[in-house]
């Protein structure tokens, strides 16, 4: 079985977090949500008060995000971060590579 963690042709895209990059943090996700204009309304209930973010170390200043790994029957692994609606419990996941891609775009150019 082949476990594919990177997108073919895009060798720098990490489909599944493997610990090789700095951890994704709460502020990374919040910045991503704001700039991508993600709604704070739940799509499944009346809640409009925003999402609860799944974090590893909630007491920290900028906590690390929890990483959820999904494995397809073909063996492909994908990692996501998660947010939950505090009213109805709807759990939404966001692909970590999309957040990485976004953060990379925000880095100042080095050339
Ligand atoms: Zn909801």
3D architecture notes:
This protein has 111 residues and is of the alpha+beta class. The protein has one domain. It is built from 2 helices and 6 strands; from the N terminus they run ββαββββα. The protein is globular. The model has no long low-confidence stretch (mean pLDDT 89). Zinc ion (ZN) binds next to loops.
Secondary-structure class: alpha+beta
- What general outline do the C-alpha atoms trace? globular
Taken together, the total number of domains comes to 1
Small molecules (ligands, ions, cofactors) in the structure: zinc ion
Rounded to the nearest angstrom, the radius of gyration is 15 Å
Q: Can you tell me the residue ranges where pLDDT is under 50 for at least 5 consecutive residues?
A: none
Summed over residues and divided by their number, the pLDDT gives a mean of: 89
Query: What portion of residues is helical?
Result: 10-25%
Strand content: 15-25%
Summarize the model shown.
The protein is an alpha+beta fold. The protein has helices spanning 26-35, 96-106; strands at 6-7, 10-14, 52-53, 68-71, 77-84, 91-95.
Question: How would you describe this structure in keywords?
Answer:
111 residues, alpha+beta, four-stranded antiparallel sheet, two-stranded antiparallel sheet, globular, binds zinc ion
Topology:
Layout lengths: L5 E2 L2 E5 L11 H10 L16 E2 L14 E4 L5 E8 L6 E5 H11 L5
Antiparallel strand pairs: 1-2, 3-5, 4-5, 5-6
